[in-house]
Amino acid sequence: MNSGVITVMKPRTFRRHFRESFKNLRRNGWMTFAAVSAVTVTLLLTGIFLVIMLNLNKIGTDIEKDVEVRVHVKLDLTEADKEQLRAQIENLPEVENVEYSSKEQELQNIIKDMGSDFTLFEQSNPLYDVFIVKTARPQDTPDAARKIEQFAQTETAIYGEEKVENLFSFMKTARNVGIVLVAGLLFTAMFLISNTIKITIFARRKEIEIMKLVGATNWFIRWPFLLEGLWIGLLGSIIPVTAVAVGYYYAEQALSAKLAAHFVEFIGYIPLVVPVTVLMLAIAVFIGIWGSFISVRRFLNV
Amino acid sequence: MIDMQGVTKKYPNGVTALSGVDVTIKQGEFVYIVGPSGAGKSTFIKLIYREEKPTGGTVMVGGMNTATLKQRSIPALRRKVGVVFQDFKLLPLLNVYENVAFALEVIEEEPAVIRKRVMEVLDLVGLKHKARMLPTELSGGEQQRIAIARSIVNNPKVVIADEPTGNLDPDTSWDIMRLFETINKRGTTIVMATHNKDIVNKIRRRVIAIENGRIVRDEQRGDYGYEA
Known about the structure:
Chain A is an alpha+beta fold. In chain A, 72% of the residues lie in helices and 8% in strands.
């Protein structure tokens, strides 16, 4: 007897909520436009930010995986000394793999990369013999390099320290700035959506009052407003989703050719665009419904 | 139908609108609530359709205790209670038919039932021929008839009216009262707060007088009892 009114939604009721929500969108045309624009700008920046960060992350990891210590061996060593050095390096706990490259091989590599002008150096090779050392975990590279440098036979031990560290610290800063920016925009968009819904609720307060009086359920009253918020979110996602899908298609084609020479690759089209699109749509739906929910809760009192 | 026991209503601003109210209204009764302005009549009315919650005591309406009724159960109560106001509360953009149908649409009644019920009540209040007109094209009395039609379209057990003739001239008020009598004869309980001395004295019914938040008089076939 005291139970609430049955709330399973009939198709006819659902159509009604649909109609009402679109009527509301049209009724506050300019507020709707402002809210949709806010969602568009937010998602566009979020999308671009995601595309850039995900790719930088991929490139960073690619480079990091490739980090190696190049151990320059002192010039006057015997083969036995070199073998001893190799054994010492291999005994370090961080080290996974050691390769030897004689100074003749090193020169050939340079000639291959830089051109035949360097064949001049074949007369008097200025290079060192080199051990190329890889650690099991990329972050152990600096430690390994420092230890190897202590060995008597080592001239120097160098690794792509600064390149990697700079990239990672840049990414960290960019990510924090981006998150703050996107969070700010999300709040703005949500605020505008909730304001739009507030105006709708205000315009319909008399209808709402009568609905409550004659016994409409709270969800019956809420639905059109939640749907209105959802449409604002989804309308706002059209341009950003299209922009990322089309933009990345061309960006990837244009840039990956250039980057291929440096052994770095962008994330493929589908593996990037699908998750980014899904995430953008999820954000659109979330801020749409949540923005509307805030107003529904505060101003509808149901 | 309506049973109040030891009902107290104290508003958050400290005003005590009702205290120690005990009253029973049976199904099919016609009851006037009279008393000076600010005596607690409106609060009494609002407790019945759970616009307000009592701060003490119990208010039973059609088997539901509005004092402990959960928020989500309020719609079930409202579907048993029709409410009519002094200011009609019609939707200006909807025509007469749509205004009445609205009350059934929002509780998800079947379209065929809605058509049938709306035409029935419009016939009862004598506005069938004006179904396509907008409320603003009608007189105050006709607008109140629409509001009454809307309040009974769902066949409620009780109709609550807060000063239903407050905005109407004397002749129109009598028409509205005859309509309430017709509805009452069909078995619907009527609870009406009013300041209209002539009506109360002429159409003799049970009179409950409230002063300073207390029931000071409760008479079958009583009179208004105040100088207007």
